[in-house]
Amino acid sequence: MPDPIIVGTDGSPAALAAVEWAADDAVRQGRPLRLVYVVDRWAYGIVKFPTTAGDPLTLHAERALAEAETAANKRQPDVTVSIEIIEGLPAKILRDKAKEAAEIVLGTRGLGGFAGILIGSVSTHVAGQAHGPVVVVRPGWRDAHGEVVVGIDDSAECEAAIEYAVAQARFRGSVLRAVYAWQLPVHALAPEITYDIDGVREAQHRVAAEKLAPWRRRSEVTMLEDVVCGHPVDALTDASKAADLLVVGSHGRGALGSVMLGSVSRALLHHAQCPVAVVRP
To answer: Which domains occur in the chain, in start order?
Structure first.
C-alpha cells in the first residue's frame, strides 16, 4: 500500500479545511488518508494518569476525528480513511509522523489539542523540522486557477521543492509557474560604482532557465518562468493570488523549528493567499 497522506486534526475550522484539501490530494495521488489527533495533556495541566473511558480529552478527540472523517468522505466518497489518537506533544508527534507519510497536512491554527503554546506554533514547528512535504492550509481555500507556483533559487535546497511542485502540477493537470526573485547588491546603488543592470538581469534569467532545464526534459508539465527583481516574499505572495498551491523549500539551519523553517518560508505561511507546501530535503 502506498504511504498515506497524514492530516493533523483537532476539530478546528482550519483543521477541517486541511482535511478537505488532503482528501482531494489523496484521491489525486491514489493514496490513503490518515487522520491523526494528538492528545496533549500537559497543555491543559492535567496529570498523566491512565486514560479512562470518560476522559474528556479522549472524548473530544473521538468527536473531532468522527467529524473529520465525515468531512473527508463527503468531500471525496472514494477516499480510504483511517483514524488514530496519540498522546504526546503535537508538534513532535506530527514531525515524526512525516517518516511514514507521503506528506503532512495541517491547518494554519488550531484549538483543543493543538492550542498549547502559541497560535500556529505546531504548523510552524512541523514545517520547520519534518523531512518531506508539509502543507499548511487556510480556511476558505479553493482550487480555481489551474496553477501551481514554486519558488526557485540557485541553491540545492530548492530541488526537493521543484520535484514536489512538478508532481503536484502533474497530478492536477496544472501549469507550473517557477518564480525566481533576485535583488540588487547594495553597492549597485552607489553612484561611484559602474554596474551593468541589464547584464545582471540577463544572468538571473539564465540561472532560472538552467535550474528548470532538467525538469523540462523529464516532465510533460507546462512550465513558466517569472524572473522578478524584488524580495522573494513579495514576489511569491503576489504569485500566490492566482495559484492553487505555493511550494517553497527551506534554507533555515538553526536549532529551533522556527529558525529551521527559514525567514522566507515562515513569512509565506503567514501571507500567502493559497495553501503552502514547505518541502525540506
So the answer is: 5-137 (3.40.50.620), 147-280 (3.40.50.12370)
